Amino acid sequence: MADVSTARVRSVHAPGVTFVELTDPDRKNVLDDTAIAELHAALDAANPREVLVLRGAGDGFSVGRPHAPGGHPKGPEAAREALEEVVRLNLRVLRWEAPTLAVVHGFAHGAALGLVQQFDVAIASSEARFSFPEMTYNLPPGLVASYLRRFVNEKSARFLVMTGEEVEAERAREMGLISQVVERAVLNETATRISDAFVARLEAEIALKTSLAALTPWPGHVEDAMQHGLHAVIRWTSRPK
After folding, report:
1. Rounded to whole angstroms, how far apart are CA atoms 160 and 152?
2. CA 24, CA 147: separation in Å to the nearest integer?
3. pLDDT tens-digit readout, 39-55
4. Per-residue buried b or exposed e for 154-168, using 16+ beta carbons within 10 Å of the residue's own CB
5. Number of neighbouring beta carbons within 10 Å of residue 33
6. What's the CATH fold of domain 4-185+200-237?
7. Is the pTM of this model over 0.90?
8. 114-136 burial, b for 16+ CB within 10 Å, e for fewer?
């Protein structure tokens, strides 16, 4: 497996683990179509039976998808294809065979926070802030709504998607958006400790993930729910103005 370094994403392989970093800090690591494609390329180059760690460079993890008041600049069909690639990325992380770890500092908003939900473990620095801001610019976040209640309780999910308000790290942990909050100074050290532990017992962790997937209490198939959410967004954005 080769390391991957592109305009928006860098991945580095070590024994038993792939570290992927969003590397567009000047644009707050925005998850535009290019960044999503480069994340897919990084996963293509990684081994799904090895640990996956994702973090962001600069001041924060990621601001999420770009907000375009007039819709996707290339039109409705491009918007649909872009959303399908976001769904595919979420499902790839969710189904990753080995343990996955998201390491968040600064901020994680919108699609970036949605992606964090697909990781087995998500740790965040105490100053980090989180939100699904889509409704603040009149875009119902149907895709997020399709899976968020699998990770947080009903009232928390509705608060997050219906108000779009930002929550601080400890509140995000209480809601279930993230697993652990640590001080920024020890965030990387904590991430290394967790990923090293995953690598040390890798086969047992993979076996455990298989059991957890088989015993999930969630009704229905997550891919079906995501497709429903995707089409809800498409119907809204393509409605007569």
Report:
1. 10
2. 27
3. 999 999 999 999 999 99
4. eebbebbbeebebbe
5. 18
6. 2-enoyl-CoA Hydratase; Chain A, domain 1 (3.90.226)
7. yes
8. bbbbbbbbbbbbeebbbbbbbee
